[in-house]
């Protein structure tokens, strides 16, 4: 049989997992305590449990990494197509016409 060992760095942040035999003896920076499923990274080991990051902090960090990646690879940045611009312009025109009709008809639409 095997079981999982969860490893962490000198700052107690989760780094990786490995499978070991049941008689394995953990060494420094290892634990048999599992990182909970669905926990946002980075997870930090307190000595008795893993504490994850708030979703807002995680999302902000992911956005920062994404923007840095796009800065290094601008050719991969999403672009706005001509069709998308045309659809947006038409939507704006419809909204303006509806506003004029509402005003002209005394507030009835």
From TrEMBL:
Protein name: Uncharacterized protein
Provenance organism: Paucilactobacillus nenjiangensis
